[in-house]
TrEMBL record:
PANTHER family: BETA-PINACENE SYNTHASE-RELATED, TERPENE SYNTHASE. Its EC number is 4.2.3.-. Keywords: Lyase, Magnesium, Metal-binding. Its cofactor is Mg(2+). It is an enzyme of class 4 (lyase). This is Terpene synthase. It comes from Neolentinus lepideus HHB14362 ss-1. Belongs to the terpene synthase family.
Length: 309
């Protein structure tokens, strides 16, 4: 059994992004954040005592780094959506007000796909709840598949089309390279999140984390499992870039341009979410600045930390 440790060093995930992806931030971040916070509180989606947690999460900044070009109304909607997704999953049926704001985006295929991904998210969350109830931990392969749905990233990537006003035909998403790109991006963001949130998760006894499962299945010490997960992220970033080069032309300049914009949105999500992790208090709490500077994470004590999504 490996010796007990109380800290680990993060892999430099930001440097993995640097050769490939440019960090962009939506200048409407502050306004969208303020409007969203008021809407969440005024409509009773969160208790007043959750307000500091909402502010500390900086979900408006996450939205601004992942959707850097959309207008204020779109960014505000996305911030509302992320807040409900992370802090109030019971509201994700979705609220009638959110649905009304999506209806003007007139793309029946998009709406059907978004509904399917919302259903997949709820099913994955229910499976995780059953696993916790029975103290069950999935194997590595099963966990990776489950995490693709439990992360909510399928819906988040659907919102790239909403944010950019794209109406990509169904056959674009049926293309194997496009499917591979989406899956690459989901895995990169999910695994990065698991690395960042390991301290929080182990502090509340949650074994649904890539690092925990690698420790168990590959018989690795904590730092070895973190390094292994970091290498997976690096490998999949390189795979994403290679797959992007292999995207076909669809024989229509407008569709080709829309695909380019969409894939840039996947890029924004990868680099934006990784940089946001060093700004939010969800993973490192009051130690965020020290972690950002030195890269060392000290393990949280049991019961003291917040949920990840």
């Amino acid at each position: 059994m490996p010796p007990m440790v109380n800290s680990f060093q993060l892999p430099d995930l930001r440097s993995f992004c640097q050769p490939h992806f440019e960090l962009r931030v939506n200048p409407r971040c502050r306004n969208a954040t303020t409007l969203s916070e008021c809407w969440i509180m005024d409509n009773g989606f969160m208790h007043r005592n959750q307000k500091p947690g909402l502010r500390g999460a900086k979900l408006g900044l996450l939205a601004a780094t992942c959707y850097p070009t959309c207008d204020l109304g779109q960014l505000r909607f996305i911030t509302d959506f992320m807040s409900l997704l992370i802090f109030s999953t019971k509201s994700m049926q979705l609220s009638s007000q959110l649905w009304q704001r999506l209806l003007y985006f007139r793309n029946p295929y998009w709406h059907a796909r978004f509904q399917e991904h919302l259903h997949g998210f709820h099913e994955a969350q229910a499976q995780i709840a059953r696993d916790r109830q029975h103290n069950a931990v999935p194997d590595l392969e099963s966990y990776i598949e489950l995490r693709r749905y439990s992360s909510g990233l399928e819906m988040a990537f659907d919102l790239i089309e909403y944010a950019e006003g794209l109406k990509l035909p169904e056959y674009v998403f049926d293309d194997p390279i496009m499917q591979e790109l989406r899956q690459n991006a989901i895995d990169i963001v999910s695994w990065s999140t698991d690395i960042f949130s390991y301290s929080v998760d182990q502090g509340r006894g949650d074994q649904h984390n890539l690092v925990s499962i690698l420790m168990e299945e590959r018989h690795l010490a904590l730092q070895g499992a973190v390094n292994y997960a970091g290498n997976l992220v690096k490998e999949y970033i390189e795979t994403f870039v290679d797959n992007e080069r292999m995207l076909p032309s669809w024989g229509d300049a407008r569709i080709d341009e829309d695909v380019r914009v969409y894939v840039h949105g996947l890029r924004d999500w990868i680099v934006g979410s990784i940089h946001w992790a060093f700004e939010t208090d969800r993973y490192f709490g009051q130690n965020t600045e020290e972690v950002r500077t030195f890269g060392w994470v000290f393990l949280a004590q049991s019961g003291k930390e917040k949920h990840k999504n």
